[in-house]
Design brief:
This protein is mostly helical. It folds into two domains: 73 residues, Glutaredoxin (3-Layer(aba) Sandwich), CATH 3.40.30.10; 116 residues, Glutathione S-transferase Yfyf (Class Pi), Chain A, domain 2, CATH 1.20.1050.10. Helices cover 55% and strands 6% of the residues. The protein contains nine helices and four strands; from the N terminus they run E-H-E-H-E-E-H-H-H-H-H-H-H. A four-stranded mixed sheet has the order 2-1-3-4, with helices on one face. The longest helix is centred in the middle third of the chain and has 30 residues. It is globular, with a radius of gyration of 17 Å. The two termini are 28 Å apart. 34% of the residues are buried.
């Protein structure tokens, strides 16, 4: 399989980390949505990442759909999203908040990376910032009261992976690594995950904002 996209995207990284946890080897195409846009569009008409090319040439787009396929391929005993009940609902809730937080972060970055300075709208950026921090505060509350090593059970789930990838992205890209002071529970929780070999295999040395060149 071929995974397309840079690991500084939390959506690409959560797919890559998941594939390592599920022992699914892949080839990585480290393509940027900025400078490699036309290359990506050969596989994904939207020019977005992550894009996963299966061994038979079929292409999957959008990280949630890719993760669903990976769980199905792994089988119910190894799948990283709980199968049913409250655990599944909570996992999807945490993942939805984390994904929404990441999207609000991406919008702030794109406002600076792609929009000319004279056309930037600070009230819109501030709205995204408020939504991002509201989501992070909600996740901080959940991690603070977590009694297990993981958010939901005694084993890792997709909620843990998504949360850690999103937090690392935001901390590197927007929060100037100051999130530990604002969100200590989140910081400690995600730091524990980052030492796992599956996360270290998909490390990001520094965040590089996209460019239109």
């Amino acid at each position: 399989m071929i995974l397309i996209g840079m690991f500084d995207s939390p959506f690409v990284r959560r797919v890559a980390v998941t594939m390592h946890f599920l022992n699914m080897p892949f080839e990585h195409h480290n393509w940027s949505v900025g400078k490699d846009f036309e290359l990506i569009r050969r596989y994904n008409p939207l020019g977005r990442v992550p894009t996963l090319v299966l061994d038979d040439g079929e292409t999957l787009i959008e990280s949630a759909a890719i993760l669903d396929f990976l769980d199905e391929h792994a089988g119910p005993e190894r799948a990283l999203l709980p199968r049913a009940g409250r655990a599944r609902r909570l996992a999807l809730q945490y993942m939805s908040i984390a994904s929404g937080v990441a999207e609000k972060g991406v919008l702030q970055i794109y406002e600076n990376a792609f929009r000319p300075a004279e056309k930037r709208h600070e009230p819109w950026v501030e709205r995204c910032r408020v939504q991002m921090h509201a989501g992070l505060n909600e996740l901080e509350k959940h991690t603070k009261v977590c009694k297990e090593d993981w958010l939901l059970s005694a084993r890792i789930t997709q909620a843990d992976i998504t949360l850690a990838c999103v937090y690392r992205f935001l901390n590197e890209a927007l929060l100037a690594r100051a999130a530990s002071r604002q969100y200590p529970a989140l910081d400690n929780f995600c730091a524990r995950l980052e030492v796992f070999k599956e996360f270290r295999a998909v490390s990001i040395s520094a965040f590089s904002p996209p460019t239109a060149s």
